[in-house]
Amino acid sequence: AQQASYESVWDGPPGSLPQAIAGCTRCPLHKTATQAVPGEGPIDARLMIVGEQPGDQEDLIGRPFVGPAGQLFDRIAADVGLDRGQVFITNAVKHFKFVPRGRKRIHQRPNQGEVAHCKWWLDAELRQVAPDLVVAMGATAAAALTGSGKAISARRGRIEIGQAGISVLITWHPSYLLRLTDDAAREAATLELAGDLHAALRYET
Ligand code: URA
């Protein structure tokens, strides 16, 4: 992988990054979340997948993409031959942001400041893994990785060159598929996400 350089650099010993993320107080989200959810996967993975932030299940369990969106991701990935164990999977923001509603905790999209504060950790993960390609699932990940907050509908399926020269393939977030109520639209978007993951798997630098 190319040697990328980042503005902010976490410089702890390899292996201690998840622990460092666990103690993060860089933004207020740590006060209400159960725990931070660091990325997971092989440190030498060629492919890195980035989502938005942990959801309710991820917050309780402490692992990324284990709830409904994660299960959908796993199914689509498996369909195209992508084994989750071979990729490093993480989020743009490491703490769950929500509002309580009755017994439920309703997911809230992180704001630009929260994404910017957490970029410190995403950069640290990027630097450690140094992937050949990063897949940005959804608008939050795309903005964190490319600096552009433009709608992803016109960007999906393309590779953009992000900060520090990293290649970023933009695709739908699996939660977006779960929210689509129209069957045909959901099927089409599912095929697009599958196609993008397949392309990511075959990506050669
Ligand atoms: N959605 C995300 O963006 N990330 C997760 O880890 C789970 C749901």
Task: Summarize, please.
This protein is of the alpha/beta class and 205 residues long.
Folded structure, characterized:
It comes from Roseobacter litoralis (strain ATCC 49566 / DSM 6996 / JCM 21268 / NBRC 15278 / OCh 149). Keywords: 4Fe-4S, DNA damage, DNA repair, Hydrolase, Iron, Iron-sulfur, Metal-binding. Residues 38-198 form the Uracil-DNA glycosylase-like domain. GO terms for molecular function: 4 iron, 4 sulfur cluster binding; deaminated base DNA N-glycosylase activity; metal ion binding. This is Type-4 uracil-DNA glycosylase. By secondary structure, this protein is an alpha/beta fold. Helices cover 37% and strands 15% of the residues. The protein contains seven helices and seven strands; from the N terminus they run H-E-H-H-E-E-E-H-E-H-E-E-H-H. The protein has helices at 17-22, 56-61, 68-79, 112-129, 139-146, 174-179, 183-202; strands at residues 47-51, 88-91, 98-101, 104-107, 133-137, 159-161, 167-171. A five-stranded mixed β-sheet has the order 2-1-5-7-6, with helices on both faces. A two-stranded antiparallel ribbon has the order 3-4. The termini are close together. The relative contact order is 0.18. The chain binds uracil. Uracil is lined by residues 51-55, 58, 64-65, 67, 69-70, 91, 175.
Rg from alpha-carbon coordinates: 16 Å
* Mean pLDDT over all positions: 95
Quick one: how many beta strands? 7
Helix-strand sequence: HEHHEEEHEHEEHH
Give the N-to-C terminal Cα separation.
8 Å
Overall shape: globular
Q: What hetero molecules are in the model?
A: uracil
Q: Give the uncertain stretches in residue-range form.
A: none
**Fraction of residues in β-strands:** 5-15%
Helix/strand-derived category reads alpha/beta
**Largest sheet data:** 5 strands, mixed
Roughly how much helix do the residues carry, as a percent range?
A: 25-40%
Number of helices: 7
Reading side by side through the largest sheet, how are the strands ordered? 2-1-5-7-6
